[in-house]
Amino acid sequence: MAITCAGFLLLLVATGFASRDDVKLTNRYGQVGLWNTHSAKTLNRYGLQTNFWGSYTAHDDFLVNFWDRDGDPGLSDPIDPIPGFNAGEFNISVGYGFTDFFDLAVMVPVYLDKIAKDSNEDIITDNTVKGGAGDLEVSMKFQYPPNQESDFFKMAYYGAMSFPTGNTTQGRFPRHNYYYAWPSEDTTYIYSNDGNVEVDMKMLWTWDFRELSEEFPVLFHFNYGLRWNTNPDLEHVFMLNAGLDIRPRPWVNVFLDYSAQPSFSSVERRDVVLPTGEERQLGLLDDPMRLSPGIAFLTPGGFNFSAGAQISVANEDKQFLFYGREDALFETAVEPKAKFVASIGWNGIVFEEEEPRVGKDNPEVYSWPRAESITYGQSLRNARLYGGSADIDGEFSFVHRDSVPNAGVREYSVVFTPRDTTNYAAAFNDVSVTIENVETSVTAWPRARSITYGQSLNEAELRGGRADVDGEFFFVEGDTKPDAGTASHVVRFVPEDTVNYTISNRDIEVEVAKARPEVSQWPETDTITEGASLADVSLSSGRASVAGSFAFAEPEKEPSEGIESHEMIFTPDDTDNYETVRGSASVTVEREAPRAQVIQRGALILEGVNFELGSADLTRESYSVLDRVVESLRDWPEIELRVEGHTDATGSDSLNRRLSYERAKAVVDYFISQGIQGSRLSAVGKGPDEPIASNATADGRAENRRVELHRID
């Protein structure tokens, strides 16, 4: 758990300190590769790596029987129940790339074992952690031939020597099958150090399929060789490793690592006799054989973290007897069934590499060629190079000529290969290549389902469209809400692979039906009198979902007295996009009431309208006369009046004119107070200027003091 947490912490920190793009995953031995399998690739010149690799197991099926001998060399009944155990291994390594084709690494393993007391506390007296450092191993990797031009296939030789460190009896369980001394009664098994030098020799092969296609990020590694033990009592073993390395992203590796260590005895199918007297024939499945799935994260800052499992596929039915120390005897399986494995490390270039010196053996390229454009699906072989020239004879070609690039304008490496390759080196440069899209073929454009005004084009379902590649048909202006009618709109086909295929457009017809407005309330009607038409009915309170007007279907009809239902029509203002809606409303028709007497044209003297002496205050008897005028004005709304006030000649003219105006104004104000519109009325004061009788007599002066009405409509 601590390794996992530390790994994720370093992963997060490292992402902010990018120093190079080519971060490599290193294995338990300090070399480039997977956990148990080596890659033929190297750290490159001046490349430095450090790595901490660890495994842990407490698998119940590993420990089969346990004898606590307590100094007795013989076998008694095994302890029951079998105690639990814990086993850990930790490899610490450092590696360095002296050249682009030669790496050197040093690795030290540490082994720790522990037997749990559990319910056997009275029997198992020693449950302390046993273990220590294992053999120090120095390894080297040499690519051959050096400076290989092909990045697709790499080959390298691997050699390692392990030197004895620590105590041969450290630990409780043997760590390698090449530490097995096939039994005799006086044999003691080796645990973490055999006390002798061991030699490991392997051939390494790596295929990098990314060099053939960017769409296939897969590497495959294969190792085979021999582990030679200089102790004549111990086993020699064959070494066989394979690894599948998938890199879906530059920063993540998903891998499966296979490792097998068949001993010479297993290959020869040798018969052995165990200390218990049991005879057994050894086979290939009696030696370690593992599958290790895992995932690794690589950061631009050089840090790498991996985690996964190591699963044994060796024979689970056969066990071996191991004499661990004087106080205990163990019967175990070949290996624990499963281990948890994790690693954390860093690698990077520690020195800036000097610029290569330009010598006379480098050709001078006067002009690099241009490349003809190609179409997606064609390889770079189809992009003809033309126009290049150099100072010596040779040929221009793409480095990765079998690569099939995506559409766009991209840079690819071109190599100039001299005809005289013995005396001249190759020259490299990037050349732009235009990769054109493949024109999409739409075999059938879709039809659009009709919609209603107010719906967007996105709601007009497109049906029946077909093309030669996967993709989607949709309206370019899908949010548009078109007017009613039939019109053309642009439909676009967008392939799923827009990088390599073109987008196509075409107009298709869409039928948009008129929408039906919703009338939430038909209008209320006023009462009309007999003889009036429906056009005279006042309508109010009608409501609909869109703007428009309400009207009777037969406005000229004159309904009979009573209450009748008549058809109505709601006509939207936007008749291009909305339908008319029909409904009905009830109309009440009353018998026409008699109208008041009409006011005739000419001067009408209001007899009986009088004022208090010397003022404009109407007398009480005047209101009955004025009320009859009000009734006439109500029944005849088209009449407009001018009210004139007159006085006799008694007193000053200015005083009489003002008094006559005030009296006329008092009459107008009364009419207005009774609901007559002021716009139909006006007041004028004539004073004594227009007498209708002599001012010399009292009767004449009484006649001259009057109010007259004059129609002005």
UniProtKB/TrEMBL annotation:
Gene3D superfamilies: OmpA-like domain. Residues 1-20 form the signal peptide. It is found in: Cell outer membrane. Its main location: membrane. Pfam families: OmpA. GO terms for cellular component: cell outer membrane. InterPro entries: Bact_OuterMem_StrucFunc (IPR050330), OMP_bac (IPR006664), OmpA-like (IPR006665), OmpA-like_sf (IPR036737). PROSITE patterns: OMPA_2 (PS51123). CDD domains: OmpA_C-like (cd07185). Residues 598-713 form the OmpA-like domain. Keywords: Cell outer membrane, Membrane, Signal. PANTHER family: LIPOPROTEIN YIAD-RELATED, STATOR ELEMENT OF FLAGELLAR MOTOR COMPLEX. This is OmpA-like domain-containing protein. It comes from Chitinivibrio alkaliphilus ACht1.
